[in-house]
Amino acid sequence: MHDGIVSETTSPLDPVLDRGLDPASCYAAVSSRDRRYDGVFYTAVRTTGIYCRPSCPARTPAAGNVTFHRSAASAQAAGYRACKRCLPDATPGSPDWDVHAGVAGRAMRLIADGVVDREGVEGLARRIGYTPRHLGRVLVAELGAGPLALARARRAQTARVLVETTDLSLADVAFAAGFASVRQFNDTVREVYDASPSALRARRSAAGSHGAAESTAAGTLTMRLAVRTPFAATALLDFLAYHLVPGVEVAGPGWYARTLDLPHGPGTLRLHLDPSLDDLEPGRTAQVAATFTLTDLRDTGAAVERARRLVDADCDPLAVSAHLGADRLLAPLVARHPGLRVPGQVDGGETALRTVIGQQVSVTGARTVTGRIVAAHGTRVDTGVPGLTHVFPRTDVVAGLDPETLPMPRTRGRALVGLAAALAWGEVALDRGPERDAVRERMLALPGIGPWTADYVAMRALAHPDVFLPTDVGVRTALTRLGADPAEAIVGSDRWRPWRSYALLHLWQTLMPPTPEPAPQPTDLQETN
Fold first, then answer.
1. In 3D, which of 447, 440, 439 has the Cα closest to residue 415?
2. Whose CA, among 49, 67, 185, 426, lies 20 to 30 Å from 347?
3. Residue 379, SS3?
């Protein structure tokens, strides 16, 4: 990194994230082609009329000829076209969206999930808790573009990927990307990429080197999720495999698959977590293959965003490792699993209900009980994948159950049904729209929901990077095994801020059992490349 940008005690992205788009810091990152800034800001070049990612391999433009933008939408609104060489939209998102979780970050998560396409700006504003006008002002001030422009940029990026790397008809691409009409799709692609959709498709052989997506059977797409490295893919797979819910999830060597409950119908996701991802050079952008089988192609954007949440794709692993790796207790753990991620979720309500079911029981016991509830009350789906038989029960279904009939203690059953009712009726929202503190307060107000549950849900469902669970038995056991005094280490855990969720995962990782014998690999969702 260029001298003066990074200190040993701060994130390499701090000068951009915390103090705005400082031109000197941004230009230094562009001059050194630092990949860590890809997705954090965009460089617009006046003399060429294009915008690039900071690591673009083209000759560095003169400082007087560039401006910097928080979002691709901002660069597009200023009249710039996407660089055809570095594909600036095919990058991880900004880690700031989860670290600070301000209005702009929460809005970007919902926009990526397709809320604007499905519910309009009014629906987005309602979820955030702002008026549409005020939300627009905030987004323009922080990201340089309003919600419609941000949603348009997201649709354009999805469309480019699908046009260049799948065999979908252009009409199918238009609706899969979230456009309301083929004409709107054509106009947007021409404006953003300075090429018609058919021209983009004609250069698919060149774009194929980026490995963005592939199509196989009808309704099945393999897209590649951009993540920063290092990326501890094997550790992530181990965690997901250890917490599998029968009927909803399956896993095998190098892969994890599950059902999805998407806005327009059920689907499946298969993540290709190959061990080779563990060894990629730090500071680069890796590509995690994710295969989706969708009932309705309009769910493409939502499915991709939920897969990205699951793998914690926008994490800044170098900042996390630099901070936690400087701690004497955690340093060996960080060195053992650089790039360890906090596993996210594909549905906040599901995560919350699974958390309540698992209270005060072993992981194995929680899997068994949850599997029984899924079999009895989940929606049966025909996926063609051995072991994937149900979509997790919806919150309104669980809210209507008699707690006395559930395979758990009565108090936990009542807590489960009460939480499901609060989720179904909108009293608690886990879509990452409301402020995290407000969500926590609402959860704690529910009978049977304590701090451990609320904080665990914040970490997994709301992507909170700074959660610690001082009463967790696993944390205390891990600290004891590491030769630390649990009480003393927990009191001093503030030194791990703002990355305590990652510290927690490093501690839990020391307790992971040996990887079990793999289940038979599905045949319906084979890798196509």
1. 447
2. 185
3. strand
Closest alpha carbon to 108 in 66, 134, 145:
145
Q: Is residue 29 within 8 Å of 44, Cβ to Cβ?
A: no
CA torsion, ordered 96, 100, 102, 108, to nearest 10 deg: 30
pLDDT per position as a tens digit, 294-350 = 999 999 999 999 999 999 999 999 999 999 999 999 999 999 999 999 999 999 999
Per-residue confidence band for 94, with pLDDT thresholds at 50, 70 and 90: confident
Cβ–Cβ under 8 Å, residues 41 and 69: yes
Residue written as tokens 């700006």? Answer: 121
Mean pLDDT across the chain, nearest whole number?
Answer: 90
- Domains of the chain: residue spans and CATH: 14-82 (3.40.10.10), 96-209 (1.10.10.60), 214-319 (3.30.310.20), 348-464 (1.10.340.30)
Closest alpha carbon to 150 in 182, 178, 181: 178
| Distance (Å) of CA 336 to CA 234, 333, 481 | 12, 5, 16
The two three-digit tokens of residue 476, written as one number:
């205390």
Instruction: Output the pTM of the full model.
Output: 0.89
Q: Alpha helices of 90-146 — where are they, by DSSP H?
A: 96-99, 103-112, 115-128, 132-143
Beta-bridge partners for 267: 260, 294
Residue 267's Cα: distance from chain center in Å? 18
What are the tokens at 148?
């419609």
Task: Return the number of other C-beta atoms located less than 10 Å from residue 411's C-beta.
Answer: 12
pLDDT score for 521: 42
Query: If you search the block for the tokens 């301000």, which residue do you land on?
Result: 102
Report H helices in 312-427: 317-324, 331-336, 348-357, 363-377, 395-399, 410-424
Q: Give the helix/strand (H/E) hosting 156.
A: helix 147-165
The two three-digit tokens of residue 488, written as one number: 């003393």
pLDDT of residue 205: 52
Is the pLDDT at 517 greater than 80? The verdict is no
C-alpha atoms less than 13 angstroms from C-alpha of 477 in its C-beta half-sphere? 8
Residues with active-site annotation: 52, 472
End-to-end CA distance of the chain: 34
For β-strands 42-45 and 390-391, DSSP reports them as: unpaired
